[in-house]
């Protein structure tokens, strides 16, 4: 006897079941990262709005190509049920299904008098733009955080440990719903010439992000967005699922290999945002937000501190060991003889301790690759309570120095000259900045310390009331005691290439 059940009632041991579901999302077929199989992900939702991921492989993808359609309702029976992996983030369900050839998948037609199709879906688990900075450190967030972590082991030297800290990369995978303000042309990014297209997104609070569509996302969905924007008077709204947000270059937002994008989806939340965008189109298009960067590649969102709690420099040491902090301070480069750039692998973005740009065999990428320069240096933050040092890198650093990483490398490494920073000192003089910082912890078996990285900065609009003492004593290295520490390691996720750390694709078993 076949048992009629909902998704939550189905486990690996459940036999002879049938479930009524609707396809609420379907991705394009993808090749696994290890190149061993082709797979396709779909998201199913039952009558109780419970959702689960289903996976099809090469032969099944072809078999189901004409049968499975978005927002259609089906009766699925006895799919293979597997346990979802949780080491790479919080899945939508504790299990996932594998659809195979022998699978029964009967579509329910609108004319069916016994089984009626499910109504249009309403369940969305979207992440608002103003929550994104806090998700970097909120491991209990509903969408879950996928952080590339390496446990500190005795075999790591202090130098390697410090390197891991200075190049930490936080990655989360989120669903977003946003208005499209602008769609750029298809282009090639960086030395690796990966194809991409950038679009400017906005929410109903005027927070903006530059969103990079990599490879076929720029060609297919990006082309669709550009075409509709050219022929439609109203602004578009997109729903992006499994979008990558990382802290590699501030807060960057981009597609990953199994993301999905839909234009003007028929969800109540999307319809409400579309209507809001219609009413506020003039305001959105004529009032550029100060909360976004205008860089030509994956750019961080600059978050104003108007609604954030500011702390003083002296209070940073007592702040939580990991988190996003907001300060108002002057900035200065007191160490003019530091290295202002590093070399990293053009593929995995791993920092290399060398100044030689010759090709090499990268053990992480497992291929011959080149080294590319990346701007990275230390800057001092000063207020009337103390002085501390934070790192600033990539596009934020290039913007501050008014130089590209290539120019910096040519001056400091090729020509072996010191950078002229007079223009930077003049630009920073007697100015106060609203600064968003990330505090990260690292350590060894004996000590635990913390470092600060600048996520964004913006000049404060009114002049400072007092002049701070640039020679004030620096605070001691931030120390944390009796805390179990995990150090983040460098991974992909830059403006030049899609991230390389991805949840593994389920391996098909024969």
From TrEMBL:
InterPro entries: NA-bd_OB-fold, Rep_factor-A_C
Bias-annotated ranges (Pro residues): 501-510
Record protein name field: Replication factor A C-terminal domain-containing protein
Region (Disordered): 489-510
UniProt cross-references to PANTHER family, sorted A to Z: RIBULOSE BISPHOSPHATE CARBOXYLASE LARGE CHAIN, CATALYTIC DOMAIN-CONTAINING PROTEIN (PTHR47910)
Domain Replication factor A C-terminal: 340-452
Pfam family, one: Rep_fac-A_C
